[in-house]
Amino acid sequence: MNPGQRMLPTPSPETQRYWDGCKQHELWLPYCLACQASFFYPRPFCPNCFGWEVEWRQASGRGTLYTYAIQYRPQAPGFEPPYVTAIVQLAEGPRMLTNLVEIEADPAQITCDMAVEVVFQDLDEMSLPVFRPVRA
Amino acid sequence: MSLSKRVALVGVDESDQIGICEGKTALQLHAEAARNALRDAGLTLADVDGLFTAGPSVMGLAEYLGVQPEYMDGTTVGGSSFVIDVEHAAAAINAGLCSVALITHGEMGYSARRGRASRGMQRMIDPESAMAQFELPYGVGGPPSVYSMAAMRHMHQYGTTHEQLAEIAVATRKWAQLNPKAFMRDPLTIDDVLSSRWIAYPFHIYDCCLVTDAGGACVVVGAERARELAKQPVWVLGSGESTTHQSMVNNPDLTRTPARYSGERAFKMAGLTPKEIDVVEVYDSFTYTVLVTIEELGFCAKGEGGPFLANQRSAPGGDFPMNTNGGGLSYTHPGMYGMFLIIEAVRQLRDECGERQVPNARTALVNGTGGSLSSTGTLILGAD
């Protein structure tokens, strides 16, 4: 199912493990053994130290909303404005671009630094990680 | 070895028309602007031995113009490219690799959006790229969809307000009203901005630049050659360039831009401080781009761009004249606007701006921003 024909990722050899994890509804991040820190997006070395000793580790799926915007114009197929694009700061450190879901697209409801957690949207053969507010 | 005052801008101009250029191609705008800027310099195309552009391939441009440059540079890093090209031209001239550098721009932004022309850019997104995999599936697209997220973080972290952003749109429009070439010259108030429709919250439509057809060009030569030409040379006193990321999400700090690096180098090379700049031309893809750039260049403390530009301080008659042509917000913005910052700074320093002339302008700062606040080029220019 991919209503509206949303643009879907084409995994590369560097990112296949990430997308395989998403398919299982798990968030996996590359981890630099030298820096002892996760990084994103996946590549075969650490963009912080250029070290090549890297392994995959599962992330908690928890984070905070670093920033967001409410899109009032259709920017891409498969999206009905208004919708929320967001950058999430993961508990493990890296940031990722995503959508904020399960909340009204209303600035009165959304605050930077609010707690969020990952959920997965299944679209055709892919699963995309998106984030929703953590309910108290 | 410092490049300061080794080269000068000796010719600048736009294409024959800007705004809506129906019936023309983007390359024609490059050629018109090249002819006009060379005429302004008192030079001809036969004098040109260095060619610089962004958008089309520099090979394609050379072929179209019918020139065979001995030095070429196609640095394509968005709207800052042309500003960075001036620094590259300075280095090449100083190294003896070319003597007359022509930098051209041309885009059919307005007409391309209406399907009536080709924009004049080579555009391709690699499906394996990080952008295609980790960003586009989430419904981001044009610049408003990502600059809005940077502005939101700044508003959250520093208390920047919609009203403070609107001040910039209004002040810039007042300059446009003094520029006969400006696309938007109707009066604009803070309330008009705040009551206009949302494009991408926190941006109203008046927080966003125009999309026009336009071309521009400039000519750079060494110091000796510059003194032989008819018009007063505008010296490159300092320059800098930098990039910190490509995609907005990978900006290490969304409230910052690489202008803090390119600006620091430019000021150091020029031996000047922000207080010694008479006129400021900074890229205004969005009102927020201006606000954050002023902070990054050190004109005010970090986070205080909003209060600094309040009360129409950058409008005509204010004590911080900025974007005196009416900017990308109201004069013209074809897609990669950087060339037009250079054109206006040179005209101000030559005292050619008529009604909008900043009195006694001896120094100017130009800051081009490209991509998603990704790349910057800073120039500090001076008149004798």
What does this protein structure show overall?
- The complex is a heterodimer of chains A (136) and B (384).
- Chain A is mainly beta.
- Chain A has one domain.
- In chain A, 6% of the residues lie in helices and 38% in strands.
- Chain A is built from 1 helix and 8 strands, in the order H-E-E-E-E-E-E-E-E.
- Chain A has one helix at 16-23; strands at 28-32, 37-38, 54-58, 62-71, 83-90, 95-99, 115-123, 126-133.
- Chain A has a 5-stranded antiparallel sheet, covered by helices on one side.
- The longest helix of chain A is centred in the first third of the chain and has 8 residues, at 16-23.
- Chain B has 384 residues and is α/β, with parallel strands linked by helices.
- Chain B has a single domain (7-116, 208-383), classed as Thiolase/Chalcone synthase (Peroxisomal Thiolase, Chain A, domain 1).
- Chain B is built from 14 helices and 11 strands.
- In chain B, the strands form 2 sheets. Chain B has a 9-stranded mixed sheet with strand order 3-2-4-7-1-8-11-10-9, sandwiched between helices. In chain B, strands 5-6 form a two-stranded antiparallel sheet.
- In chain B, strand 5 and strand 6 (203-204) form a beta hairpin.
- Chain A binds chain B through residues 6-12, 15, 40-41, 66-73, 75-76, 78-79, 82-83, 85-87, 95-99, 107, 111-113, 128, 130, and chain B through 127-128, 130, 132-142, 144-146, 148-150, 152-153, 156-157, 197-203, 247-250, 254.
